[in-house]
Amino acid sequence: MVWVAKCCCCHLKGGVIAIGCVFLVLNALGAASAAMQLYGANTIFQSGAIKDVVNGILGTSLAMYVISAIVSILLFVPACNNDADAKNKRFFLIPWMVWIIVYTLICIGFTVYYLIQLGFSAALFVIVVYLIFIALGIYCEIMVMSYFQHLRDFNPAQQPTGGVVMQQPNAGYQPQYAPQTGYPPQGQPMAMQAPPVYAEKQPNMQ
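The structure assignment produced for this chain is given below.
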């Protein structure tokens, strides 16, 4: 049973394609930013515990962005095909669904960590950002899961086939029309026309 039938105002397929595009762009930008920060940190910090901590944080962020980008690309494998072909490719959606669950749990963990360490007022902005990510992750998870269920339950045999319905000819009487030349006049049914009756010419008795 499909949880939802539409993603916002479009079909689930369009919603999954939009989700894949948004996540791919955001993760590509995030990966590029994390890579530049990692390079800058290694340039600034030559050695020591601070460098190890920074490298660990930025390296983890970079890995998460790369994984998220890869699973986002996999969304296009079924979504860019018709439902009949995508039915056997629906399993490409599973890595993304699993990863978003893990990603959401990580965001929840960071939210709790900042809330405990900094307090609600000091970490309000960070907490709000993570809550937005959590809400979007749950929403997108529901959309992709619904599309997976749609493909799982899709039956091509029950889909209407295309074609042109031809109008059946009338079984009743259809008047036959004469050719375009000759008698009777054009466009008149033969059954409605009668040949003229000519009187036999009588001999002149006078």
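Interim note for the steering committee: The radius of gyration is 37 Å. The beta strands are 6-7, 10-11.
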